[in-house]
Specification:
The structure is a homotetramer. Helix content of chain A is 45%, strand content 12%. The first copy, chain A, has 13 helices and nine strands.
């Protein structure tokens, strides 16, 4: 499979979409990013790396961070995680409070904001210094100690993060989170603020792709558990566009409002793509299209 | 892989669940089935067949029929199907009207009742004799002309099918269905009443598993389309337990309130299991457990 | 109080609204009515009658009929009525199914469609010939035996009444209605099809206004029960505009999509107004405005 | 009308309910109140005062304060208030977030928590020292300068007020409140913490009852506006039990989780009742019953 050629062909095909959509502007620090960027990187299990355009430019990974947080949490708590959060697709937007109220404070899954806030709470309870443990884990996944939080983005999100604060207060009301609301929110926003490039993301997700022993910074996961985590990505990774992504791309993946998307083809490759302009569901337009073209061109998907 | 041994081991492990749950009783004709039955059949793409217990006993396939109906519909209309029905997981019970009202009559996906009723309506509009075409298609998938509707079950369901009648009327109100309500409902219930055994179901689903040219009774599907249909099964095949099934089993599948479940492992095998006792979500308890044990034992899943 | 002058002044003030809104067109037989009509009639407890414009033209009373049906039902069953239907304002549109599903088949109040269908079901169970009993009761309230159903309107509504059929099926599913769905729906539509003029409506509602012994065609109500029925009109008579009507007009009342509105000022007067053009909530625009001006001019309301 | 006798008779009749229900315990400072207390006071427009039991004991008026806040707000802003908050009954519990999300941040009415928080925000924007202005207004209504906030209760509510904090954050997200969230919440809780006795409440509500020129501490309202405020009390004063109260009592009124209820019979009397044990809807059990018996005994209600 000539992945480099496929990637280049994809880029030509998605060019007409280059000006479609607009970047997330509700977080001031994110609104400053040049929206006309695109990067893509595919890494195979045998270690070949194919990349294209701004694949080394770091961007705010935002919700993609939820995969790392869940992985840490599963390593620490095992199946007990599911006592605090569900694993069903939400069928609603990523930030809906309705479902949370109807379901009495148990978030539908760990990839909607409410669920990720609960995961943040669990990590805070389990770890003495959750912030440094988390970034250490992510650095270990990438083998790169320069990966870091962006304090400015985190602060910017906290200052205008009224909806997430509403969610955290509602969770506290229902008793689903244990720690101080401010502490939980700040940690949640810190995790979202991590900056990585497409190359680094593809590398980090290789750990969920290659079925090698998973042991990073002391956090271990069995193969069975990695497969289950991938299953959650498949059904819940794209909010109310999970079905669409599954249909068009056919791989487990996770998107973030920074414009990044990562997907994995178990035992084959991980792939990261980034472009800041989003569709109405909050997913990168060029990113979605690029991944659809990738699995169409390769005729490969998990289905 | 010694599938026969694995199946026999599974049976021992699920025996403790044999009396858990209860069969669907809202359809009088289904309530008469002996609930203490279990059958399982696994067919590999190379044609080996492993089966166990009542694997030749026919039962009401109920919602499993929605996969056949969608396949026919995709063959006839292609991607236009998605103008009439969505492909996102529903996050609610299979028979909810709330979502339908909120979303102005566009069912969330073709595997909840509302969506399957729309599919029935499309088939009625496209085909002169939808009933005989449909059963012909199913027979062709199985290579068995004895497969048939159970008229008594269909009538029984229609007579007490107030909720589905409510859904059909609401769809008609929103203009989502074209044909006469009674005609659409009756065809929908007829499709649900088809009776098949585990062996026949495993055989029929081989067509979605083996990536051979799909051409049955004149209905053709490209490989790409089959993969997409499988993706919809993955995200929407188990109502509000889709995430759970994906997590525990890791294969695309479809369940029915008759107690049957079919799952496929693309390019490897299709598997059908049947036991009438259901959990609170309407899925077979022994069936769910059996499939979880299967992918645990084989260490194989799409993730 | 010079009511005749007040009515004439009102007419001048509402003329600018004469072409605003549009009549109900989802019922073909109603769409044929000339929308540019207006009638008003006020009758005092001492028997004076003031009327204006097309106050003798009969029109389809539609949902106003629900007051008569509830009165009959309260006479027959007393407080037991409230075991089958609530008495809280709905906060949603008159025809919403969402609430019904969330609340497991108990309609919020007898003035939304679902509630009125339950009332129709109770009358059918209680009376041997509900149709003739009901029209007899209405005739008795008006002292006019020419009041009648409009068979054509009833049939027209049934033929396109998909939403009400959805509601009735959902009620049947939850076990809230006892009789055959078709029979209940047909009786419901018959009651809605009754035609009365503003003069006749004002006369009929005098029975809820004057605190004289209530005994019509054998149906009796105590003063306490009449006051309670009036309370339900106040809180539930205008669907999701109940608060607005209460705020602007300050009287208990009931509207219908035929463009009629009746309101009562206990121990003072009943007033009926009619004009077919409706606002987005399904209430007559000129009618709402006329009643607002009436209580503003008279400085009288129950508050 | 021998109101004193009626009050004494009422007390005998409600005694069997004395131990039913339980007091609000989610606010620690309120949970300390002796629940076995009861007070009642009726004041006529001609100045007669009838009272009984602990009618001079002050208690936390909680949501009753919302009437005072709305009155001030209407005086300051007139009908513009309704651009920021609706006036329709909510049909859901007093603290629901679902409705707020569905309706994009416009609270249904000023008497649910979300609406009262918006009113608090308006007062903060309009007044330089809202806290002293508000208590001055309430003192003026009672003619008693000893009425005051209970700082401990306010702090206690803020500390565990996660749900109200969720609501305030959601309102801020939708742009419905202008001021700092903490400031708005603290003012809201301060207003709720005001302590008054039944005698003082009956006196204060006389201003909404007697149609005398309304001018208290400089805040003026026209008779028309008072009547409209009373209409909002009627339809929205008891959360999802507004219909029940209207049906059983037939007077506009407002309840609080401190166990107080105030009702008014325009041009006749105002009446306050207090008993801490609440029903499942958050309304005083003995209070509701006492008022029902009052209007039954007097045969008087607005209907």
């Amino acid at each position: 499979m000539d992945y480099q050629q496929i990637l280049e062909d994809i880029y030509k095909e998605i060019l007409p979409f280059a000006k479609k959509g607009s970047q997330a502007d509700y977080i001031p620090a994110l609104a400053k990013v040049n929206p006309d960027q695109f990067g893509m990187c595919l890494e195979t299990v045998s270690g070949e790396v194919y990349h294209f355009m701004q694949s080394d430019t770091r961007f705010s990974i935002q919700s993609i961070t939820k995969v790392f947080a869940l992985a840490m949490c599963l390593s620490l708590k095992g199946e007990d995680v599911w006592k605090r959060v569900g694993k069903e697709p939400s069928g609603t937007a990523f930030n809906s409070l309705v479902q949370l109220e109807v379901e009495k404070g148990i978030p539908r899954n760990p990839f909607i904001n409410a669920g990720a806030i609960v995961i943040a709470d669990i990590l805070l309870s389990e770890l003495e210094d959750a912030e440094s443990e988390f970034i250490g884990f992510v650095r270990s996944l990438c083998g790169n100690d320069e990966i870091d939080y962006n304090e400015e983005v985190a602060q910017s999100e906290r200052q205008c993060g009224y909806l997430n604060a509403a969610i955290a207060n509602l969770l506290k009301y229902y008793g689903t989170i244990e720690n101080d609301i401010e502490k939980v929110l700040m940690f949640y926003f810190k995790m979202c603020s991590v900056e990585m490039s497409c190359r680094e993301l593809a590398k980090a997700f290789m750990a969920f792709t290659n079925r090698q022993p998973f042991d990073y910074a002391g956090y271990k996961l069995s193969t069975s558990r990695i497969k289950r985590l991938n299953a959650v990505m498949q059904t819940c990774g794209f909010y109310d566009e999970a079905g669409e992504f599954s249909y068009l791309v056919g791989l487990p993946g996770k998107s973030g409002v920074g414009g990044g998307i990562v997907a994995i083809y178990p035992m084959r490759y991980s792939v990261a793509v980034w472009s800041p302009r989003l569709n109405s569901k909050g997913n990168s337009i060029m990113g979605m299209k690029a991944l659809e073209l990738l699995t169409t061109a390769t005729q490969e998907s998990i289905f």
